[in-house]
Amino acid sequence: MIKVPTDNLYKFMAVFGLVLIGLSIYVFVRFVDVQMVRNVDANSRITKLKIKDDIALMRLDDAIRNAQRREALGAKKTKDISAKSDSSKIIYDKMMGEVQNDIEIMGYYDKLYSLYLTIVIIFGVLGFILMLTGFVLWYIKLQKYLDDKIRGQGSVFCDEVDADV
User: Which of 8, 66, 133, 139 is surrounded by the fewest CB atoms within 10 Å?
Assistant: First the structure.
């Protein structure tokens, strides 16, 4: 009957578990790094768009106030003022759409990041369990007996040395 070399199997389990743990840590750090860069980029873009949004809103308010002043003074509503206020409204709506789009993209990346983080944690825990199981089985089923055998051979050797003296 052929005896399966379980020693190598237990060591393989332990080493593969260590590799899973190391890979999980690497992927976790990489995801955190990528997510931080995305958040910084998105936040800076949103901030820039909000500043442009504030400027466009101030221009829109100015155009509306100027039109109201001219109408109050009896001037006719000109096409130029109306077109200017309409273009300001269009710019404002476009910027608000871009800000909303960036916020939705950030939300999507946050959900994706949470999913990846969950997967990485699961693989890390599985790696730890596999590593621990491999080392424990290797020690309990093999190494403990090898240590006893070596100790026994050492005591026999010591007895032989003592008898020679």
Answer: 8
The model's pTM: 0.56
Structure tokens at 37: 């860069």
pLDDT band at 38 (very low <50, low <70, confident <90, very high): confident
Q: How far apart are alpha carbons 61 and 53 in whole angstroms?
A: 12
Give the ranges where the chain is alpha helix by DSSP (H): 6-72, 79-138, 144-164
Q: Report the C-alpha gap between 144 and 97 in whole angstroms.
A: 68
Contact 62, 6 (CB under 8 A): no
- What is the per-residue pLDDT across 84-136, written as a single tens digit (0 to 9) for each? 556 666 766 777 777 777 778 778 877 888 888 888 899 999 999 999 998 88
Which of 52, 48, 58, 51 has its CA nearest to residue 102? 48
Provide the token pair at 58: 């101030």
